[in-house]
Amino acid sequence: LEIGPIIEELEKFGCDTLAKKAEGLTARGIKTPRSRAAKPKKQYSTWHPSSVYRIEKRYKILKEKRAGKS
Prior knowledge:
By secondary structure, this protein is mainly α. Helices cover 64% and strands 0% of the residues. The model has no long low-confidence stretch (mean pLDDT 87).
């Protein structure tokens, strides 16, 4: 699941801060990277602003690389 496009969608709906984006991801039930990797599966599905920041940063780099390859 690519989270970058979901964050972009949240921005279109007015989520203009990292905290609001984190709340939006949590409300949608999007699992955090930690919850996807946990064994046994635990419910770490609360997003934090710092997690959103890291995801946004990586996503921006990927978008720039993809745009450069076109």
